[in-house]
Fold:
Amino acid sequence: MLLSIPSVLSKQAVADMRAAIDAAGWVDGNVTSGKQSALAKRNLQLPEDSPVARKAGDQILDALERTPLFVAAALPLKVFPPLFNRYGEGNSFGMHVDNALRVRRDNGFRIRTDLSATLFLSEPDEYDGGELIIEDNYGAHAVKLNAGDMVLYPASSLHRVEPITRGARTSSFFWIQSMIREDAKRTLLFDMDMSIQSLAAELGHGHAQVIALTGAYHNLLRMWIDL
Ligand code: NI
Structure:
């Protein structure tokens, strides 16, 4: 499933975060890459242990907890502390798949990457190019969202960032280990959850069929959950 999640951060939160991270010390983006992706990657990143990056990352983690659409779609078990990158003119990231396992160097925190996320921190009119291209069974999808919006996609997807031809694109990126490992099962649960919520809005949460379907949702989750 490829899903856009609007307004994870408010415009004010984005402006405050940008003021903090723009002034921080950026380094070559290859510090976090696997060997294959290092060949294809041209961008800047904030170091994982940068206090500014950590604070901004914590703000994003808090925002995710307050975003029901993210929780319903990702069914998160663990979220990797968000990282930050910036693509200036001529920068890009060629086609690659993210590493299956991510480990924090400083504290050994590690996750299996089921989902990848990019939270846009630049408005689309700040730069030309820079689309995130994600390939799935239905072809290639170009993603360029408003500042504060986030895209969630299976970490198993081939993806790339198109070259920037004007301006700069700043974003946060991170990975999620889901309670539901398989994308197809997670997608089914998400579709079911969304349908139950619309039915509940129409019929009321106490409606017998809404209660029955909610029970079926939780029993499926119980059957598949992986903690
Ligand atoms: Ni990637």
User: Anything to note?
Assistant: The first strand starts at residue 3 and ends at 5. The two ends are 21 Å apart (CA to CA).
